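# step 3/5: fold
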Amino acid sequence: MNSGTMAGLRRYELDWLRVLAMLAVFVFHSGRFFDQMGWHVKSASVHGGVQVWSMFLLGWLMPMMFVISGASLFYAVGKGSAAGFFRDKVLRLLIPFLAGMFTHVAFQVYLERITHHRFTGSFFSFYPHYFDGLYGYGGNFAWMGLHLWYLGVLFIISLALFPLFYLLKGPANGLLDKISNFLSLPGGLLVLMLPVLTLSAVLDPNSFFGNRHSGGWPLPVYPLYLIYGFIIFSSERIQEHLHKTRVVYLAAAIVSSAVLFWQFGYAMPAKEPRLMILFGLLYILGSWCWMLAFIGFSLKSLNRNNSFLNYANEALLPFYIMHQTVLLCFGYFILQWQIPDAVKWLLIAVGSFVLIMLLYEFAVRRFNILRFLFGMKPLVNDGVR
């Protein structure tokens, strides 16, 4: 296995993981119309099977996104100046977050309001009301960017953790080696579940930091996953361990998920403390083992590049930014058709994917002002980025 962790080496495993995780986010949101949880636009009929699927994906999807982002930060920190790091995060994360918050995210709120019979009229008549109060607190303004919360949170914690990452990669590199050596021992990586388990247990789900509205997890766990990704991809020893034990982690993930489904139907038991603790242990164990297995198999099989990966890697951020708005637009209309729900889902998913890629290819990708607003590098005169 070529695990190479030199700062200048392109890690295609990370690129593939990023692309596959983003496709999983798209699939997850395409199913949200039909699960049993609340969402912006919902089908008149919901399904328990889709609910189980949604809960399964919630278990590891956004934590995996932060693990991948933490791994990317390992290669970004120290590559240039602190000012350059800050500038890159503003352009890649903050600008798309703010641009989306004031444009197409408002359309998501509009669709939610008319679907839930809290507004009538056109989007243009709604837009002035978009600034009436804060979303989630009785108002409309989506201050967290709805699905773009990931960009906002990643921006904040990347800057907050930059000094730590800089120290770990530079002056405190010996400490990072000691941490990595411990985590590469048998069972060492499972210790990283303990802070996540503790935070998930002690944070009140009804509080700002304890609520599960952002990706199914309380917000304070995401900095942990960012750090975990940084540490894992800093160490050839940890990566070698994951490469060798990927099947073990996959088996543990499958067993944990199977028991969750068999015993709980992937639904948190209410008012039974011992069962709630068991559910939490299995849920977090399965979540972490799925992520470790994904990383281990990527190290085994995905260290390769091709033209599709090059194209997808550049399209990834615009795809993420646009995907939920486009899904909600398709869903709003298609859910009104008298056809089977499975066909509705297929039409929503395929139609949305095609439209997103058309918008990217013929609009976002070709004009520098849109590239800027979507966090992409500008085209120069000869078309080379």
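# step 4/5: annotate
Confidence is low (pLDDT under 50) at residues 1-7.
# step 5/5: archive (pending)
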